[in-house]
Amino acid sequence: MLWHLRKTAAMALLSLMVAAVPAQAAEVYLNGVRITSLKNAELTNCSVKFDVNGDVHILSPGYRIEAAADGSQQLSGQSDYAAARTPTAKTKMRYVLVYEPNPKVNFAFDVWINGKLFQKIGLDSNKFTVEMTQDLVVGYNTLRIMAKPGDPPPGGSEADTTSLKIYHGEATSAGSFKAKAPAVWELVRSAIDRNPLDRTYNVAAE
């Protein structure tokens, strides 16, 4: 009974946060895919983050956003309870993942941290910055990147790139995040890179 009440309370809180988003002109993403017309859907076992732009990022492994016949969005799949995270911040510094897309590159990415899915980035995902502090531990963390190319857009060259970068920094007195250059880690793919990638990196956090 207690578990059911906690689950119901969490779902109610999530519904209130999502319902409040349009008034703030923010955007909502589910596993890296932007939600534009999803209705009558329920998610369980979620991790919810607000990025530095006020956008809402919902991570709930097992769910997918698909296009319905009428052009709207529909929810498919089911919650992967084992993959759901209960993050706790352990580091002194704050860390964010920054995604810089380029329509001439057309790559999708899966980002894993310490063996758990952190972020899915679709071919049509927009630029975003998402907090990752609570998923890191002090010392070395295992970062796995799976990059999957889509159809090669016309006119792309080596100069056209998309990137994933991790920055560290601290909170300002106003509560915003101030990143410190250079990036702690980065991955760059250009329009001429059409091979899939599955690579593991060690990223140090303090």
Order of strands side by side in the largest beta sheet?
A: 2-1-4-3
Class derived from helix and strand content = mainly beta
Task: Compute the average pLDDT.
Answer: 81
Query: Strand fraction band?
Result: over 45%
Helix content: under 10%
What is the domain total for the residues?
2
Number of helices: 1
Q: Which regions are unreliable across 5 or more consecutive residues at pLDDT < 50?
A: 1-9
The H/E string reads HEEEEEEEEEEEEEE
Q: Distance N terminus to C terminus? A: 40 Å
How large is the radius of gyration? 18 Å
Number of strands: 14
Please tell me what the overall shape is: globular
Largest β sheet strand count, sense and barrel closure: 4 strands, mixed
Question: Which helices and strands appear, and what pairs or packs with what?
Answer:
Elements: H1 2-20, E1 28-30, E2 33-35, E3 47-50, E4 56-59, E5 63-67, E6 73-77, E7 94-100, E8 107-113, E9 116-121, E10 128-131, E11 139-149, E12 161-171, E13 177-190, E14 197-205
